[in-house]
Specification:
Number of strands: 14
Strand content: 15-25%
Helix content: 25-40%
Low-confidence stretches: none
Mean pLDDT: 93
Shape: globular
Structural class: alpha/beta
Distance between the termini: 25 Å
Largest sheet: 7 strands, mixed
Radius of gyration: 23 Å
Length: 421
Amino acid sequence: MILSDKQKEFINNATHRYNIKVGARRCGKTYLDNLWTIPFRIRERTGLDGLVCIFGVSKGTIERNVLQPLRQIYGRELVGTIGSNNTAKLFGEEVYCLGCEKVNQVSKIQGTSIKYAYGDEVAKWNQEVFVMIQASLDKEYSCFDGALNPENQSHWFKKDFLDRVEQDELDVYVQHYTIFDNPFLPKEFVDNLCKEYQGTVFYDRLILGLWKNAEGVIYRKFCDEPSLFIKDKAVDEYGNKLNFMIISIGIDYGATKGETEFKATGITQFFKQVWTIDEEKLTGLHSPEQMYEKFVEFYKRVKEEYGKVTHCFADYGALGQVITFGLNKYLQEHSIPLFVDDCIKGRIVDRIELDCQLFGQVRRFILRKCKYLIEAYTQALWDDKHEDERLDDGTTPVDDLDASEYSMFPFYDKLVRSIGG
């Protein structure tokens, strides 16, 4: 078993009630947990009273970040899959696997006793969930291991937990990583990743492993070199017209401003490139019927020029779901083979990071005719009054960004895997 110096350091020192790894992406934090930490902790507590739990942002991320890698190392006999009761068999133990974005997702463990808990992507959790888990670590042998990428300096996990470790004499071991602490990564990969995040807050967080506030221009790469990303036609490097594997439309109803945004996104084979291929902005007051008609015109225009529209995702805020219900009924009545789903909003900072990394790898493109989205990327700023939020005070066109993100964010996992995230 070949380990880095930082990983060996963790094994030697992670003997506390809480053992936390904070740092860069791809630095070896989670790999060590899958290889050693999780199996060791579970087997160490075999036969003792209490539950074993793995917590993540969602059951999907637990499967991707924890169970799949465990299965690759130890096989299916020792690492099962998550069943309908939210449990999986791991190393002979029944293990609860629960998502932590919302409190109600883990309320079922409230009042129980946990002998071992592992936390994946802890900084993306709801704080109340972490407090609930703490209250359940009630055995003298209870233990929590967690890994995370740092976020803003006012983040609840830093401010209300890590910063209190010494002051309150908490039994916590904290280890910090940079990407350079992983000697097994190819130099070319590290150099490229550094270039991709250069000039953004994500360089400090995901390369250097620092808690860092976001400020200023968001899409620095796009603003500095717009000619790399703004194209006249959707063609490959040989001038051939692109065939898109996915064409997805995002809708932001913009109820507060009387504007509705349609953005059409094309994704190429193997999720290699993301193109904004068309847009429409409806201004002023429109009846639902008028909006439905305009949407069908937009849909037909995109379909005729670029091919089959495979997906559509709409904002569900305010009256959004009511409007979407009417739109789906209208599409059905007019024999349009498309169903409009509710969008997956996720955290704004995650949507922003995806775009920034795609720009960083020069895999995100926008047709010149999509002037509203180009303007939105150019003007987007971090909100200095709200951590990790875009400025949304009416001075910048954030609705265009929302609609674009709604069209692509459902494919986040595949896009991240494709771009080496």
